[in-house]
Amino acid sequence: MEFKIWILTESGQSIKYFNQITQLKPMIEKEYEAQEVEEKWVKLWKDEMFYFDWNSKKPHYIIDTPPPYPTGSFHIGNTLNWCYIDFIARYKRMKGYEVMFPQGWDCHGLPTEVKVEEIHGISKNDVPREEFRRLCVEFTKKNIERMKRTMRRLGFSIDWSKEYITMYPEYYRKTQISFVRMFNKGLIYRGYHPVVFCPRCQTTIALAEIEYKKGKTKLNYIRFGDGEDSVIIATTRPELIPACVAIAVHPDDERYRHLIGKKVKVPTTDYEVEIIADEDVDPEFGTGIVMICTFGDKQDVKWWKKHNLQLRAVLGKDGRLNELAGKYKGLTTREAREKILEDLAREGRLIKQEEIDQNVGVCWRCKTPVEIIVEDQWFVKVDKENILEAARKIKWVPEHMFSRLESWIEGMEWDWVISRQRIFATPIPVWYCKKCGEIIVAKEEWLPVDPTKDMPKEPCPKCGGTEFEGETDVLDTWMDSSITPLAITGWPDDWKKDDYPTSLRPQGHDIIRTWAFYTILRSLALVGEIPWKEIVINGMVLGEDGRKMSKSLGNIVEPHEVIEKYGADALRQWAASGVVGDDVAFSWKEIIAASRFQQKFWSILRFTLLHVKEKPDESAMELLRDADRWILSKLMKLVREVDEHMENYRFAEALKAIRSFTWYEYADNYLEIVKNRLYSGSDDEKKPALFVLYTVMNVLTRLLAPFTPFLAEECWQRLHERIGEKVESVHLQSYPVADERFIDEEAEKRGELIKEIVSAVRRFKHDRGMALNAPLRRIMIYAPIEVDTRDIAGALNAEVELLKEMPTIELRVKAIKPKFNILGPMFKDKVKAIVKAINGLSDEEKLKFVESDSIEVKVGEEKIELKREWFDIEIEKVVGGEGVEVLETENAVIIVEP
RNA sequence: GGGCCCGUGGUCUAGGGGUUAUGACGCCGCCCUCACGAGGCGGAGGUCGAGGGUUCGAGUCCCUCCGGGCCCA
Questions:
Q1: Which end of chain A is more exposed for a tag (fewer CB within 10 A), N or C?
Q2: Chain B: nucleotides under 7 Å from a protein CB?
Q3: What is the pLDDT of residue A85?
Q4: Which residue places its CA closest to the C1' of nucleotide B31?
């Protein structure tokens, strides 16, 4: 490989953080090949670049990264979330922090179980629990690998040595410890709770597993009680009358207010229930009187909890009514419905029936309507006040996201149910004594444990029994993921207390009520502290049509499609384009614009490398011209601005500022202005321009590094390779700091004037149909400040003369524009009249006003003195000259001899 | 039904009391300028969702309505 050797001698490339020598070509290509460059750096960058070191003396910055659910594809919504994290991580790292950007995987859960059943054509109960779990683990591993590839391709600066996987014993041991500790603190208990149940599949199912099917049903009007105090209720579930525990009306319903508090007998039974008031009752539905049963639907559960009603669990797991239903015992719901309606009709209690539309919850699998039954479940106590108070101590970005959590907490009606009747999840480390029924919770040192195959290491403490029944219920997945900030800080074995709370939680607003809420709850319960100092919330990614991405709408875009067409950096720039917290619509236009910027930046690099051949030394500083000082001053202000935006997570603003400086100030103006000097100037003339070229490229690549890590690295390396300097990755450099020596307001004014003059003359050439580099005979400039004309001459291809005095040009006041922000508060409603008076002045009066600094006008009967500085004055210059064109800009008069 | 957010040229968007409303894409015209034609220069295009209110002055603040989005019932 001769080529490689040449590179070695030419540039001495030997960068400790790269896996191999970079193959830089001596000539820079015209086109930026994002694919090629990005794939090269994915291979060259070493993971160690981003390893976090607990012993580092730098301030620590720890990110509680979301562990995604390993579905197998890292989607565009994840991309947005992770881009934000990576912008922050890279920025903080360059700002001198020791950054931890760990990565976890939230493995457990129903979708994987379903997928595994599908792939293997089995039901989870067809194989031993352990075998089923093994299949899930295997499937999940593959998915994780696929997602990791996408994440690496997107250039995320993840510390892969800090990877955690919740389905592995090392992690779920922590989950189990957290369970045990909270149980021992009395924060976890076992109790009755309604659950959704499929009578055909004989299993409880999660709310997420319910499908809703539109259908028709009959609304039955049924009379409860007799005589004066009888009421007519409307129900679609007459078979649940034996489960009726109350009757409810709306508190403001005039028709029924007198009934509140009274009791009424429930038909088909021998007991009475109370008539209560509740605002959730819809007076428009049916008769406006509703019966509450345990349980017809979720609303019943809500009422049951709220009003602390008794429980009449008439429905058994077999889907039949039990002894509480009296003579209807043993009937299925359908049979019971017919029989009860028959009986009620005979008694004259069935007043009428009408057909209505109804959404029935059905089992996603067998489409059988689901029922709500009551079962023993495990709960975590929810201390609403405590959690709210803690959540207020966290900085929410954007702030209004806190109110989502707040309203959620305030509306919470019951504790967190953490038990699931599933398999692929963290086992609940509990047994029941077969002899006395005592609950035996595992000791910490026994963990991790699977109570369905492991047994307690001690006899029952209550009765000494040695036979146990292992808990088959498992934990809600949120029990795994709500301890992530603890897990990444080494809890419980080697907990870095001093690094807690962690610095940042970045996550989507869709899981504020779950992940954010549960994490705060658990952190308080386990260590008594908030989990993070700040939480940055990202929005959802919508399709190009502004609707949520979904298969049925066909508006899904996958990251790999974008990467293949435009590369990861372009996708990352798109991710930066929105406001943090807002939903962001995907946009190919934005991607294309981003990739054009990359090409523009590449062209600038190409131009830079054409001229810059060695590292400019400081002696260039003394030779700087106005144009040079101007762009350097602007550059430093850009650095300040970008830094401020980054500190406040305003990525769009930061990137926009970089892009517009690069393109519209630097490329379109500065480079055009210095071109002539670079091509045909003397060494002393070139020197300062080269200094600028080098400095700007050096600063811009670092500013861009968090956003476009690949492009930035490539340009950074090419620039240094060109000047023969060994450098480490741009991602290990410090973020630019504004060099105050270059901030120079006067130079900026002169630079702006140069820019103004150059573009005015270019516009003039354009209007005349001349080529922009066509020669002009002579240009004379009159301007309020003195300016270096040499670059103007070069840029315009003309001789330039600076006039000391305004040539025979007459002045005329073109416009007097009132500054309303000054006049408004001073003269209130008289402003309009004043403006009218000013506009009514003659040309001479106006000129006199401008020259004398004040004028007196009459408004009605009143005389008002007006100051010049209360107005913006526009002065027009009138020239009598011949054979010249006069161009007037804001700050200069340009006389062109074509 | 509840909570939160958002309606600005054709499309997307900046701006959160001050005159003439930002930029991008698209559109129209001109220029093959030695880094870039996926470029440069110039231009047309908006009664800021509707109605009311506060104010000397309202995309901007308040109220109502209409439309959209997300989350939760």
A1: N
A2: 2-6, 12-15, 18-20, 23-25, 29-36, 38-42, 56-57, 68-73
A3: 94
A4: A771
In the complex, which nucleotide's C1' lies nearest to the CA atom of residue A656? B23
Which token pair is A540?
């959802």
Closest nucleotide to A773: CA versus each C1': B33
User: Model-level pTM?
Assistant: 0.84
Q: How far, in Å, is the CA of A591 from the C1' of nucleotide B11?
A: 15
Provide the angle, in degrees to the nearest 10, between the axes of the packed helices A559-566 and A129-153.
Answer: 30
Q: Tokens 């950054």 belong to which residue?
A: A99
Query: Could you tell me the mean pLDDT of each successive run of 10 residues in chain A, 898 residues long?
Result: 28 40 54 93 95 97 95 90 94 97 93 90 89 96 96 96 96 97 96 80 65 72 85 89 90 84 89 87 82 85 84 84 89 90 91 77 72 86 91 89 87 81 93 94 95 94 94 92 96 95 92 91 96 91 80 82 92 88 85 90 93 89 91 92 89 90 90 88 91 95 95 95 93 94 89 85 76 77 84 83 72 73 81 80 79 78 80 64 66 78
Given a contact cutoff of 8 angstroms between Cβ atoms, the answer to whether A799 and A793 are in contact is yes
Which of A427, A368, A336, A313 has its CA nearest to residue A203? A368
Q: Which nucleotide is nearest to A208 (CA to C1')?
A: B72
User: What's A286's DSSP letter?
Assistant: T
Shortest CA to C1' contact from A298: nucleotide: B73
- List the one residue out of A604, A580, A605, A577 whose CA is nearest residue A591: A577
Nearest nucleotide to the CA of A547, by C1', is B69
Residue nearest to nucleotide B32 (CA to C1'): A771
| Helix, coil or strand: residue A289 | strand
C-alpha A388 chain-centroid distance: 22
Residues ≥6 apart with Cβ < 8 Å to A245? A273, A292, A293, A294, A304, A309, A310, A311, A312
Given 3-state DSSP classes, what are the helix, strand and coil percentages for chain A, each rounded to the nearest 5? 45, 20, 35
Question: Within a 10 A sphere around the Cβ of A745, how many other Cβ atoms?
Answer: 8
Measuring alpha carbon to C1', the residue closest to nucleotide B17 is A821
Q: Which nucleotide is nearest to A771 (CA to C1')?
A: B31
Amino acid at A26: P
Which of A873, A878, A869 lies closest to A890, judged by CA?
A: A873
Q: From the CA of A720, how many Å to the C1' of B26?
A: 40
Asked whether the beta carbons of A791 and A688 are under 8 A apart, the reply is no
Backbone torsions φ then ψ of A468, nearest 5 degrees: -135, 155
Residues, chain A, total? Answer: 898
Å between CA of A210 and C1' of B25: 43
**For residues A623 and A686, is the Cβ–Cβ distance under 8 A?**
no
CA of A763 to C1' of B42 (A): 7
Instruction: Identify the CA nearest to A433 among candidates A463, A468, A478.
Output: A468
Q: Are A895 and A780 a contacting pair, CB within 8 Å?
A: yes
Neighbouring CB atoms inside 10 A of A148's CB total 18
Q: Is the dihedral of CA A290, A295, A298, A302 positive or negative?
A: positive
- Protein residue nearest nucleotide B33, by CA to C1': A773
Q: Do A368 and A332 touch, CB atoms closer than 8 A? A: no
Distance separating alpha carbons of residues A28 and A679, to the nearest angstrom = 19
CA of residue A668 to C1' of nucleotide B25, angstroms: 20
pLDDT reported for residue A687: 93
Residue A543: nearest nucleotide (C-alpha to C1') = B69
Query: Token pair of A139, please?
Result: 């499937």
Are residues A708 and A573 in contact, defined by beta-carbon separation less than 8 angstroms? yes
CA of A584 to C1' of B4 (A): 16
Q: How far does the CA of A821 sit from the C1' of B17, in Å?
A: 10
- Residue A828 (CA) to nucleotide B55 (C1'), in angstroms, measures 10
Measured CA A822 to C1' B17 distance, in angstroms: 13
Q: Rounded to whole angstroms, what are the CA distances from A594 to A251, A572, A646?
A: 59, 9, 19
